[in-house]
Structures are given as structure tokens and as C-alpha cells.
Amino acid sequence: MGLLEKRRAGKLMLKILGAVMVIAAAALAGWIRSREYARRPNQIRRTILALRRLETEIMYGFTPLPDALLRIGEQSGEPIQFILSEAAKWMNSPHHRTAQESLQKAVQSGWKYTAMKNAEKDVLHQLSFTLGTSDRKDQLGHIATAVRQLESEEEIAREEQNRYEKMYKSLGVLCGAFIVILFY
Amino acid sequence: MSPSWLTVFPDNIRSLLSALPPSVFGGLEEIRIREGRPLEINAGGRFCYLTSEGGMTLDAAKAFMPSKQECNRLLDLITNHSLYTMEEELRKGFITIEGGHRIGLAGRTVLGGGKVEHLRDISGYNVRLAREIKGLANTLLPQILDFKHKSVLHTLILSPPQQGKTTLIRDLARQISSGTWRHPEARWPGMKVGIIDERSEIAGSKRGVPSFDVGPRTDVMDGCPKAEGMMMMIRSMSPDVLIVDEIGRSEDVDALAEALHAGVRVIATAHGSNVDDLSSRPAMSRLLECSFFQMYAVLKRTDQGMAFRLWDDKRRRVQLPDGPAREAKGREVNA
pLDDT by residue (tens digit) across B213-240? Predict the structure, then answer.
């Protein structure tokens, strides 16, 4: 009798452990997904700030583009720093690529570390064609356009964050619970 | 090792240039790039076009023609990807790159209030390679020494363009500043030299620091109008010798007179092929009348190097110790 009781209790324990693990995994997946929604507007904001700093460097600092990108990168934090310093690296010796190629290469290689989407990538891609190739007034115009576009993307991203962040979190837990119930 | 100026060219033009025979490459003076037209090089006073195989030709139809893309790349590289930092340079029409080389630009100008405000659609580039020839002034310097005052004479150096005036006064500045007088009886130390470098040619300054060796006691006023620069130098830097390139306007002459009264020695250059030429130019004839300069040197480039003839303040020919014209040769320093 004692043995049977013990076996039953052991089986129950295993089942509970399994259920907890399934729920935890699902909750984690939901949490990761929801975090992407939180990171995107944050990174867009930081990109906008970086562009605004670039505006100042160009307008008042007369700083050459590679130096400006390096300096702004240091203040921006990852993953923006990676993209900016990568762009500066390609511009400088010994690569001597054009500003356009350098920025495009950097965006290409660094984008996977960001939570940003294609819309933001396009904005930077567009900017790469004009960055460094005209006078200050013109540069400011192009940067301002990019900033405006990013701001509208940021708004969309914030909306999505409000809508989906919590949803994915609870959805994860619920999915886990659903699977557990199914298997019982 | 390839020289630093080669890195400003796009890959294909760079490989064309570095494939040139060493004798031509070493003597390169100008590389002219015009969008959609033949790539031209000037070396040793002669010109030719480059073919896309790297050969040299005089037939423009066979020549390699740089595309718009290559020109844009060149512009991006010479401006350090930052055209917006070069607004002042664009207004003047040239950019000085590392090593003191100057790149002249031609394009469409944007006017503001009747003055050139900006240069856009740049399609013509003239890369003028600066050469530093140490010792070029070795033969001229002993002729212009003023033993009485332990200084140098007021000297005007005359020559047509592209004969090496700038290279010569750069070396003069270096030697006067370091006190290598090239004369056994000249035993005074180096003097304070002030260079007014209106077009960043003499010292090739980059961010205010000379690219060339202009001597230990030399100050450079970079990108400054000559007349104003001379006054600024006299007032602020107390030079013993002033060096200016290409004087010619009447305000330059006024400033020179001022320098004379301030007790500063002046070495200047001007365009012209002989001393009599000067009298036909209104501003310069005033210089002759008040016999401001104590020595006139007329340069001529020869196959062996540089030759010069001298006239004194009364416009009499000065006979040089060994023969009418002496070759000045120097050791070229690779920038």
C-alpha cells in the first residue's frame, strides 16, 4: 500500500514539474516577443537622438563625418553604436569607402542586432545617399527628413507596443496553460 | 610605399596611376580629371592621356574617361566624406589635402549677393602634386645675404607660372629659419620667418599645421589675404623676414611699404619673365620706382633643374661668381 501511494505521488510530481516547465517556456517565449515590442520604439528614439546630435556636429562643429559618427556612437549605446562605428571604420583608412557605401555596409551588418524593422532601415538607407555630399543647409534638410520619418515610425511602434506588449506576455502564459490542459 | 595622395583616387584610377612607369610617376605634377572626358596627366612639363589599359596616349579618343560615379567618389574621398566642412574651400575653388597637395575644382557656382557662395556640380578636378625639394635654394640664398645687417636682402623672385617659385621660397623659408646660410662668412643664427600663405601652397597647412618642413622658427598665416596677413604678422608675430607668394595688387604694395618701415625683410614672388615686365604693371611699377627690392631673381626651369639670373636695385645685372646662370639642384623629398 505504502509503495503504491508513493508511486502515485511520484507520477503526480513529474506531471506537475512537466506542466510548470511547459508554462514557463511558453511564458518566456511570450515575454521575449513582447520585449521586442518594447525595444523597437526605444531604439528608434535613440536613433533620432543620434541624428539630432549629428545635426549639431555638422551645423556648429564642422566635424568630419567619420569623427562625428564615432563620437555620437559612443554616446548612443548599443546597438546604434555598432552601426555608427562600423560606418566610420569603412570610411577611414585603410578602407577609404565612400560615405554611402560605408553606411549601407554598416546597416547591413549591424541590423540583426537591433529590434528595428525594415521601415527604419529604409530611412537610413535613403539618408546614406546624401550624407556628407552637400553643404550644411542641405545636410540639415536631409537629416530633418530622416528624423521626421523615424518619428512617425516611432509613433506606430509605440502604438504596437501598447497593443501587443501585454498581450504577448499573457498570451504566452495562456498558451502554456492550454497545452498543459490538452495533455491532461 | 605608395605616396599618400594616391589614396584619394577611386580604385581604378589609382591602379592606372600606380601602373605608370616609375620615371613618369616620379615626375607627376598634375592629374586632371574631368567627368566624361579623358584622364590627363602632366609630368615633367609634358602632358598625355591615360588609356584604360594603363598606357599613355595623345589620342583623346582612346583615353580612359572617368564617369560621374568615379568623380563623386573622388569628391567624397578628398573631402573626408564631409563636403559640409569645406564650404570655405569650395568658395575659393580648391581643397588642400594631406601632404600639401592641392586639388583645384571646377563646377557650377552658386551666387549670393554677387559673390560666389558655393560650388556645386563639381565636374573638373586638378590634383596638383606639391613637391618638397630641400636644398633648392642652396645657390640663391648666398646671393641675397645682407652681411651688414646680418640678415637677408629684400628680394623679389620673378618667373612665369609652374617654374618652381613656390618650391623655392619654401626652401628659402626653411633655410633662413634654421640659419643654414650656405656661405662661409655668414655666421649668424636662424631668423624668425613669417609666411603669408594665402592659397595654402607654401606650407601646405592642414588644420593650421604646415605639412612641409618650413623651418623651426617659422610662423604660417594660412589662407590669409596677403596685404592683411602681412600687417597681422608684423603686429602680432614680430617676424624678421616675411615671405609672400604672388604679389601684384596695389594693396599688396602698400603692405610691403609698411613692412619696409617696420624693419622687416621681405622675400616675395611675382609672375613675370623679366624685371622690365614689372614696369608695365601699374602696382608693380610703383615698387620699381621706390626701389623697394634690393635684389631681383628671375627663375627659369631647365632640364637639369632650376636656373636664375639676378638684378640689383638699380636694375643692373649681377654677375654670379661662376657664370651667368647657375643650376640649382636639390634633393627631392617624397611627401
Answer: 999 999 999 888 888 899 899 889 999 9
Nearest CA in chain B to A133: B83
Instruction: Judge if ipTM > 0.90.
Output: no
- Answer whether B87 sits within 8 Å of A135, measured CB to CB: yes
Contact B76 A102 (CB under 8 A): no
Domain that holds residue B118: 4-128
Number of domains in chain B: 2
Burial of B186 (0-12, 13-18, 19+ CB in 10 A): middle
Nearest-CB residue to A65 (from B7, B73, B82): B82
Query: Which CATH number is B33's domain given?
Result: 3.30.450
- Interface A-B, measured as beta-carbon pairs within 8 A, has a size of 52
* Closest residue on chain A to B91 (Cα): A135
For residues B223 and B178, membership in a common domain is answered with: yes
Q: Give the C-alpha separation, B218 to A138, whole Å.
A: 39
Q: Do B84 and A63 touch (CB under 8 A)?
A: no
**CB atoms A132 and B72 under 8 Å:** no
Rounded Cα distance, A20 and A17, in Å? 5
Residue A99 in grid coordinates: 560615405
Under-70 pLDDT residues of chain B: 1-2, 303-304, 320-335
Residues B104 and B150 in one domain: no
Final residue before a domain boundary, out of B105, B128, B151: B128
Query: What CATH number does residue B169 fall under?
Result: 3.40.50.300
**Sequence-distant (≥ 6) Cβ neighbours of residue B294 within 8 angstroms:** B146, B153, B154, B155, B312, B313
pLDDT in tens, B48-76: 898 888 888 888 888 888 888 888 888 88
Choosing from B108, B128, B148, the residue where a domain stops is B128
pTM: 0.70
